[in-house]
Structures are given as structure tokens and as C-alpha cells.
């Protein structure tokens, strides 16, 4: 029963994440393109019904995922079985930290948690040393977790070699997306002019930070 609810909740969260990652890829077309995309789908998820449902699903996902990790401690065998637990543990840490930061930024700092909010952590002072691996691992962990879950669900329908190849391909796609998104937000593709309120007290307002 708990496994079934974990999968159902994963499906709902994934609906958000597909748009979320597509939104981050839209930044390849510039900061304005990212902000326009985000303004569009915020209309769908930022309301009294959808956002609390999404946040509840995330909390349930973290709690049920940690329960599965503890229950099967020391009884995992093989690369994909272990990768599923490791990626799940990282996602649990990331999601709590990420949502905490976004909600704190929005409600206590009064910030619009848009492109600049994430870019600040990836460009100002020493913060990138933490935020680069933090975001890159999150995208990779999401795809790894998805790959391992699908591999298990399809285990009776496909031969082992095809399962392994599909899972490895999904993880490689995750790595590619992770590097692309982090590079874009880090200012590797075009200079980013951070507005003063996002500067974390460490850069001249409006100046490119690289
Ligand atoms: C490079 C990677 C990422 C960046 C730069 C990023 C950045 C952001 C930003 C700026 C927001 C605020 C959105 C808004 O104000 O409407 C947000 C929200 C959110 N992110 Fe991410 N994110 C990343 C990856 C992820 C991943 C991998 C997940 C899940 C596995 C995730 C889950 C969420 C969720 C659930 C919210 C919604 C919080 C709310 O209710 O407002 N993010 N993210």
C-alpha cells in the first residue's frame, strides 16, 4: 500500500518537475525566456489547491522514501538497487532544503523566487562551491531514481540487458540536463546582471557577476 502511494505521489510531483526542468532549459534562450515560461506555469500551480497538494506530496514522498531506505538497510544488492536508495536519500535532503529555501525566500525575504534567485547561489562569492554540485546532483538523482524505479517496474516485460541499457541511458540524459542547467544559471552562456536584492550583499547591483 505504501509503495503504491509512493508511486502515485511520485507521478504528481513528476508532473510539476517536467515543467520545472523544461522551464530551466528555457533559460538557454535567455533570462527573459525563463521568466516568461515561469510566469505561465505559476498560474497553474500557485493556487490554494495545487501548491498545498504538491507540498504535501513532497513531504509524503520524503517520509515514505526514508521509511523504505531504513526498512531495507543492508539488504540491497547490485548497482541499480543501491543507486535507487542513494538517489532517493539525496532527493529527500534536496527537496526539504530546496522547498525550505524557496518558501523562505518568498515569504520572509519578500523575493520573487525566479531565475535570479537560483542564479545568485550559482554566481555570487563562494556560494557556487556548494550550489553547483547541489543542483547538478539533484537533477541527476531525479533521473537516476526514475530510471531505477522504471527498471524494477518493467523487470518482467523486458530482458535484463535492455533494462540496464534503458536505465543507463536515462541516467546519462539526467547528467546532460544537469550540466546544461547549472552551466546556464552559472552565467557560462551569457552574462547575467543580478538585480540588487538577489546579490546576497556580495556584488554590485546590476553588474554582471562574472
Ligand atoms: C538546477 C536545478 C533547479 C533549480 C535551479 C531550481 C530552482 C527553483 C526555483 C527558482 C523555484 C521557485 C519557483 C517559483 O517561484 O515558482 C523552485 C521551486 C521548486 N522546485 Fe526547483 N529547481 C531545480 C531543481 C529541482 C528538482 C530536481 C526538483 C525535484 C526533484 C525541484 C523541485 C521543486 C519544487 C517541488 C518546487 C516548488 C516549490 C513551491 O511550491 O513553490 N527543483 N525551484
What features would you describe in this structure?
With 210 residues, the chain is mostly helical. It has a single domain (2-198), classed as 3 helical TM bundles of succinate and fumarate reductases. 72% of the residues lie in helices and 0% in strands. The protein has 7 helices and no strands. It has helices spanning 2-26, 31-45, 50-71, 79-107, 115-123, 128-153, 160-185. The N and C termini lie far apart (51 Å).
What is the secondary structure topology, with strand pairs?
Elements: H1 2-26, H2 31-45, H3 50-71, H4 79-107, H5 115-123, H6 128-153, H7 160-185
Helix pairs in contact: 1-2, 1-3, 3-4, 4-6, 6-7
Concise overview:
The chain crosses the membrane at residues 49-71, 83-104, 134-154, 166-190. Keywords: Membrane, Transmembrane, Transmembrane helix. The chain has 210 residues and is mostly helical.
- Overall pLDDT, averaged? 95
Poorly predicted spans: none
Shape: globular
What is the succession of H and E elements? HHHHHHH
Oligomer class: single chain
The CATH topology corresponds to 3 helical TM bundles of succinate and fumarate reductases
Beta percentage is under 5%
Biggest beta-sheet profile: none
Distance between the termini: 51 Å
The overall strand count is: 0
Structure class: mainly alpha
CATH superfamily: Fumarate reductase/succinate dehydrogenase, transmembrane subunit
Tally of individual helices? 7
Number of domains: 1
The top-level CATH class is Mainly Alpha
Radius of gyration: 18 Å
